[in-house]
Amino acid sequence: MSEHGTHGVTDDAGFASTSQDLSSTHIEIDAALSLRSVAGSRFFRSNCSRLATLCEQMAIRFARGGRLIGIGASPAARSDVHHVTVEFVHPVIVGKRALPAFGITGTASSIATQVRLLAEPADIVLALDSDCEEFAHPAMEALALAKANQCLTIAFRCDQAEYNLVADCDDAFVRQEICEVAYHMLWELVHVFFDHNVSVSEGKPPAVRTQSAASFLYPFLDRPTSNLDSVIADVERSILAKSDEINSLRLGTVGDHDSGNRRAFLGATQAITTSLERGGTIYAMGNGGSATDAMDTVADYLFPPAPLKPRRAQDLAQDAAIITALTNDIGPDVIFSRQLIAHARQKDIVVAYSTSGNSRNVILALSEARSRGLSSIAFVGYDGGRILSDGLADHVISTDSQNIPRIQEAQATAHHIMRSLVG
User: Fold this and answer.
1) Rounded to whole angstroms, how far apart are CA atoms 376 and 372?
2) 4 three-state secondary structure
């Protein structure tokens, strides 16, 4: 039975041996949420003007034929590289154009070598590794090459970039979450400038526009505008509103002490801990942006920041040969379930991401996991879809939103806090 507010009741003591331990866990979770609220709000208040201007500059670059190039070689940064590129190439906002983007992760050759060969003067280079000391130098070298080639350069905590966005927090997970929210905002709001015909005027929007397909997300798009300054001011306000929205969704996703989501969160944390202590493996899965969330989950277990211990985990979306073989020969619905048939044992656990809760290949994999006696956790959005309504996972953590970027950001927070509790 699914462990959620409407699907069963969790014994909170199952997570902690005593009520005192449980109380301490609640305090730790609440402190982690508060840290994110303070750090995120501080970052976006300090950077909303620069982010708005950056969106305009990116739109101009795209209009001139430029591309976004994400770079990063650390395990966590690789997930961010793939996340930001899939968002630009495959926009989830109806009616928005696909924008050219690709990632460089250092798997074929050095990041600097690939940037030297592939980056062109109109391009935008976004470094997602500069926050990691071990990989900072290659990122800085690549950024220097990109800058010398007249690319627009962006990074987090790296002075080498033209736009250096500093997330001032000691927690590596919090910094990564701020980074994710920021690049989601860049992706969302660069389209605002296209809606103002920046592709034609390169910075001078028309006085009147037709109704935008994204007006439900950005109501100001449908108001007449006479100058770029007012557009940028509206974008700045949108950035601050999005920052407030994600703070609220994080709280709702992890839940209050007595909420269904908090009970599901504690139950999921205990299930992962139990599986790993028995020698089990975490199998993570998802599609598109959710595939990169699964990738990040695996990276955080295999290569965690100190003092967390490395843990067993495998990404079911990482092997292109397996994915394309199954898709070509059978169909995309089986890409995860077939791998569970091949690999999974009863002591293992499945972690699934689906913003809709209706992804067919995820549903089939969860069904396969249950038939094999595996524990399962699902992070879902919207109304939870079939995964929540039909109780298809043992522990369902739901984000009550229809805004896909915000759902994914709240899920990242829930996963990171869970990872810290697992230890």
Assistant:
1) 11
2) strand
Burial (0-12, 13-18, 19+ Cβ within 10 Å), 130: buried
Contacts of 236 (CB under 8 A, 6+ apart): 48, 49, 51, 52
- Predicted pLDDT of residue 208: 34
Distance between CA 139 and CA 162 in Å, rounded? 14
Q: Which residues on adjacent β-strands are paired with residue 101? A: 68
What's CA 354's distance to the chain center, in Å?
A: 12
pTM of the model: 0.89
Q: What is the band of 223 on the pLDDT scale with cuts at 50, 70, 90?
A: very low
Cis preceding-peptide flag for 307 (omega within 30 of 0) = yes
Q: Provide, rounded to the nearest whole percent, the portion of the chain with pLDDT above 70.
A: 86
- Residue tagged 């130098």 (tokens): 137
| Among 142, 154, 145, 128, residue whose Cα is nearest residue 54 | 154
In the chain, % helix, strand, coil (3-state, to 5) comes to 55, 10, 35
